[in-house]
Design a protein that fits this description.
The protein is about 25% helix and about 25% strand. It starts with 18 loop residues before the first helix and ends in an 11-residue tail after the last helix. Strands 1-7-6-5-4-3-2 form a 7-stranded antiparallel β-sheet. It has 6 helices and 7 strands, in the order ααβααβββββαβα. It is α+β, with helices and mostly antiparallel strands. A hairpin with a 7-residue loop joins β2 and β3.
C-alpha cells in the first residue's frame, strides 16, 4: 500500500498552501500577549547560555550530587540501599518531603535527564530533560546552551500515592504554574556556579565549594 501526502489531513506544505495563505496562518498564530496556560500548560521549556564548555557542563550536571548545589531546595542526599544509581534526599520546598531521583546521562549526546518523584522511588515520573549544546555551534561564541524541558505528567494533577504524603503538605503539581519562574532561578544558579568554576579553573565535581 502506497500512502500519498494528499491522503493525510491537515498537512500544510507549499504544494497545497501557497505563501500568501501561509503568511495569514502564521499571522493568526502570532500574538502580542499569550495566556500563561498556552505557553506553559503541558510543557515548560527553559533555556540559557552558560560561559563554560559543554564537556564541563556535562561533567557537573551528570553527577546527581550537583543537584544539592544548584537546585533551590534539594538537599541531604543518600544512596538507596540495593538500588544502583538511586538516591533519596529532602526537597525543602515540600517541608518534610523525601525526593527520590537518579541521573541518566549520555556523554556523546550531551544529555542529562533527572528522573525524580516525591515520597517513593518505585515510579520516577517527574522527569527533567536536559540537552547541552555547544554555543560555538549555534551562537558562534564559546560556552554552552542548556535546554531544559519539563512535561506535565498526569500525576502533577493528582498525587498517585496520597497515603505516603506528609500530613498537610501541598502537592508538587500545585506549583506547576510557577515551574518556569522557579526553574529559571535554578538555571541561573547553575550558570553562576559553572561560570565561577570555569573562570577559576576549579574541579567540576560537586563538593568543591562550601
Amino acid at each position: 500500500m502506497t500512502t500519498k501526502f494528499t491522503d493525510i489531513q491537515n498537512l500544510k506544505r507549499i504544494e497545497n498552501t501557497d505563501k500568501a495563505e501561509m503568511s495569514g496562518i502564521m499571522a493568526d498564530m502570532t500574538h502580542a500577549v499569550y495566556p500563561h496556560d498556552d505557553i506553559y500548560g503541558q510543557y515548560c521549556p527553559i533555556q540559557g547560555y552558560i560561559n563554560c564548555p559543554p564537556e564541563k557542563v556535562f561533567e557537573y550536571m551528570s553527577d546527581p550530587h550537583s543537584l544539592a548545589e544548584w537546585t533551590y531546595s534539594m538537599r541531604e542526599f543518600e544512596d538507596v540501599p540495593g538500588k544502583e544509581g538511586l538516591l533519596v534526599g529532602k526537597d525543602k520546598i515540600g517541608d518534610n518531603t523525601n525526593i527520590y531521583f537518579k541521573a541518566l546521562s549520555n556523554k556523546e549526546a550531551l544529555t542529562v535527564d533527572y528522573h525524580c518523584a516525591w515520597d517513593q522511588g518505585e515510579e520516577l515520573w517527574m522527569i527533567y530533560l536536559n540537552r547541552i549544546v555547544s554555543a560555538e555551534l549555534v551562537l558562534n561564541k564559546p560556552g554552552s546552551i542548556v535546554f531544559w524541558q519539563n512535561c506535565k505528567h498526569p500525576n502533577y494533577d493528582k498525587n498517585p500515592f496520597p497515603e505516603l504524603a506528609p500530613k498537610g503538605r501541598p502537592w508538587v503539581g500545585d506549583f506547576w504554574d510557577f515551574f518556569y519562574a522557579g526553574h529559571m532561578v535554578e538555571l541561573e544558579n547553575l550558570k553562576n556556579i559553572l561560570e565561577y568554576k570555569h573562570a577559576n579553573n576549579l574541579p567540576m565535581r560537586p563538593g568543591t565549594l562550601q
